[in-house]
Amino acid sequence: MNSRIRNKPFWHSLLFFTKQLKGKLAIILVISSFYSLMDVVGLSLFVPFYQLAQWQTDHAAQPYIWHIHNPVFEAHIGFSLVKLLVTLMIVFLIKALFRYFDVLYRAKTNTFLQHHLRVLYFDGLKRIQFPFYLQHDFGTLQATATQDIQDINYAYLHFVTIFQSGIFIGVYLSVSLLVNWRFTLILIVFSGLAQILFRKYNRHTQEASLQLTTHINAYTGFTSELLNFYKYLKATYLMDTFLVKIQHQMAEIKNKELQIAKNAAYILSVREPVIIGFIMFSLFIHVQFVQGSLADVIPALLFNYRTFGSFMTLQLAVLAVYKFSGSISQFDRMLKNFEKNRESEAVVALPMLQNAIRFESIQFAYQPEVAVLHAISMRIPKNKTTALVGSSGSGKTTITNLLMGLFIPQSGCVYWDEHQIEFNQLQSLRAKIGLIPQETVVFNDTFKYNITMGLPMTDNEEVRFLEVVAQADLMEWMQSQPQKEFTPLGDQGEVLSGGQKQRLAIARELYLNKEILILDEATSSLDAQTERHIQSHLEQLKGHVTLIVIAHRFSTIQHADNIYVLNQGNIEAEGTFTELQAKSAFFANMVRLQQMPNQGE
Questions:
Q1: What distances in angstroms separate CA 439 from CA 16, 260, 306, 519, one per listed residue?
Q2: N or C: which terminus of the chain has fewer CB atoms within 10 Å of its end residue's CB?
Q3: Which CATH number does 20-340 carry?
């Protein structure tokens, strides 16, 4: 969508809602057209009451809007009070029926739109490339999924009001032109002046809306950071310092919302004076300069008053669309970025690993000219334990990120047995990998959900669930809880100890039957006793799962089948723990720094 359209919120909104709702908007317009038509016919039928009085005194009097109501007489309804009342009642009953369908269908379309946008957002989010995800701050992503979708919903309601008001204006003006075209044209000119009058406020509202969206995104992100790091900020007396950023965004949000509210208050307050003023000027011009009579404009005046009412309703709706235009632009831009940065949707299944995963001459840099890995080659045998050690920034986590397909190397290849892993195999690859990071992932859900991830379960899966719980040494804890496997674990697993969280993570990957298990500093935050307990569980997996261990504590890798020592993006050495102590001074020095006794001693 080009920038010219983006700078015109109504047309941008029209294209956006038309794309998302397709034919549903047309149905709303059709229902609104019939509803407005019934409203006009109903109003028209009030005029003959005045004409009926004239008819009774002068049978030859020409009705003011004979040409409008001529079909009524052709239908042989007759010109009587009873039949006029019956006709009026029928028209308003039909109008009520259209109003019912109008409100009901708009509500259904509204709920559909919210659900549809949420589906689009999360479908796009799950398919984007990982580097693109890292480019966005958490606040923007969260606000787009929550606040922006809610604002788009409000914008949609006002957008439909614009269309309905536009239809009402068109119908009322058409009838008014038939009744008295001179007087109506004068009012149209004044309506154009009103549009110019309100244009400045609409533009200011659009600018404030875009700025408001930016500040809300920042506010959401800072709030999330405060909640995530609350303990640190509280304990270090830095809470007030950090709150300065949030308070600044709060003040900006208040100012922008107040600016938008002032614009709305202005339009709302001048609504009735503008209508009355323009009608007065139009009447004056019509009588003084067009030489018309007041009696001539009474029917037209009725319709034009409704026209001006609809016009002011339209102006308020336009202002509201401008108010939420920032959220529409933000969401639309996010969807387009999701689409541009999608991973391949083709899924080609990888066979079960037979021999080994191989890295061949892998070169990788997060930023140009700053290489993290320098043409490294390594082999990870099936069902063996491979450890990666080295100082911070040496490339250990980068290697596992490349293995999981989260990043793509600038040169070199990753092989699954003898087959180079392609883009269309990434989904299949990830389905085979389990990950246990240093900060264990525990969802705010039940114990059972955190292991099974909500997957459908047969009787066999129920048995398997109990087996992995026992294997992870969590059966006693689960049985001690009143709600057993349905015990809520709270935010970030607050009811579990550090060791229990790690065992829970192991149980999850065992239940999901992962071929490869990556432990990224998984035990570094645990005490020595708990670490040994976790290590004993991992030892039981040897020979059954391909283990890749990133460790700073060398006590966790003494029994690894092979260890790669990394130093500044290069492989310094490889071998078993004992071999490396003998042949690598770099490794032996790292061991010495942790004050571990040499195994050979």
A1: 40, 43, 64, 11
A2: C
A3: 1.20.1560.10
